[in-house]
Amino acid sequence: MLMLAGPLSAIDREHTLKVYNWADYIDETLLGEFEQWYEEQTGEPVKIVYQLFDINEIMLSKIELGHEDFDVVCPSEYIIERMLRSDLLLPIDRDFGDTPDYLGNISPYIIHKFNQIDGSGKNANDYSIGYMWGTVGFLYNTKHASREEVSTWYTLQDQKWAGKLFMKDAFRDIYTSLRVALNRDKIDAGEMDTEKICFDASPEDIAQVEDFLNTFRDNVSGWEADFGKERMTQEKAWLNVTWSGDAQWAIEEAEDVGVELDFVVPREGSITWFDGWVIPKYAKNVKAARYFINFMCKPENAIRNMEEIGYVSAVGGQEILEAMSDPDSYEPEDASYFFGPEATAVCLSPVMYPSTDVIARCGMMHDNGDRTQDLLDMWTRVKGDSASTFTYIIIGIAIVALIAGVVVGNTRKKKGHGKRRR
């Protein structure tokens, strides 16, 4: 991995690959291995410049406003949607010569969900390849709550959680999850469609979610971006509305100190979220970018990434299924949506691979366009902030977008730590 202490303008771009990714979201030993593998496959040397971001919008601004020449970036689904609409992505050519096409290992479920990304006529599967995914649900302390008790969003209204509840400070995730949950009866009656609901952000829709959030906001001890899972492992909180990847990390960490945590997706429904690799419009080394994405889709590399960061790869197939199966720890479940018809009774972590019936109750986030500010205003009112985190982010974006990439070292954090979505 190439690490620089100054501007990148003097580097040899023909033999350099600039990768822009979330913090702690890859097995970094794979970066050096890719450099060697790429030269073996193509006969051409390459060095990786690896840079980090922690907020989707800052990454997007650097590309959209600053015209940064990143070759590979890992945005979330709603940003992929926005980038497609703004013509900021290049199609991913799957011609790798004599090198196998590992992109075919992506789960059909991920391809199906990426088909639902609204790219204004562009198919997201032509411009992006799934990387990691997960759900939004409840991480809970089994000593203080039963699974049945926390299997509904309405449990948040219970006074027993006062001072012991942490909410993920992610307005899109929570808003979309609650849109699905609060309209469950109408969905089941065929009066509303889950996927269409996830696009909605009318004043009436926003008011519905705001009213519900206000029924329990006094119970919330903190609106957190990253620290909730640690509070759970320390038993300073009993319930955390969070992402499944954070939950998986917390469950494993808590077990080491004798604390039992579990995770559940509420029965009314929630969302699945997705991150994917893309090649931005201003990329300078498109060939190496394509090969890098292909390399990350090799099953053995997908497994290593999952083991390192705690999130779930978009790669499916028998090799992944065998690696993730654990009959001694988990009961059989139906994961055929992800692995195919042979996986109707497989022993997988239900946190990492929810069953088919759970997935059927989940929608997907989308870009809210000009309604985004209305959602932010609602979120700020509920939290009682004088200004939202996003407001401060926007203030700094114009400056940050034009600053050269932050230099990163090889310092490691805990597995799954640092993943943030806005």
What does this structure look like?
The protein is α/β, with parallel strands linked by helices and 422 residues long. The chain has 2 domains: 13-133 and 273-325 and 396-400, Periplasmic binding protein-like II (D-Maltodextrin-Binding Protein, domain 2), CATH 3.40.190; 136-271 and 365-392, D-Maltodextrin-Binding Protein, domain 2, CATH 3.40.190.10. Helices cover 36% and strands 17% of the residues. It contains 17 helices and 14 strands. The strands form 3 sheets. Strands 4, 5, 6, 7, 8, 9, 10, 11 and 14 form a 9-stranded mixed beta sheet that branches. The protein has a 3-stranded parallel beta sheet with strand order 2-1-3. α8 (203-214) runs parallel beside α16. It is globular, with a radius of gyration of 21 Å.
Question: N- to C-terminal separation?
Answer: 28 Å
CATH class division of the largest domain: Alpha Beta
CATH topology of the largest domain: D-Maltodextrin-Binding Protein, domain 2
What is the architecture of the largest domain at the second tier of CATH? 3-Layer(aba) Sandwich
What's the CATH H-level homologous superfamily of the largest domain? Periplasmic binding protein-like II
Strand fraction? 15-25%
Radius of gyration: 21 Å
Structural category is: alpha/beta
Low-confidence stretches: 1-9, 386-418
Care to count the β-strands?
14
Largest sheet, described in full?
9 strands, mixed
Quote the average pLDDT.
Answer: 90
Helix content: 25-40%
Query: What's the number of structural domains?
Result: 2
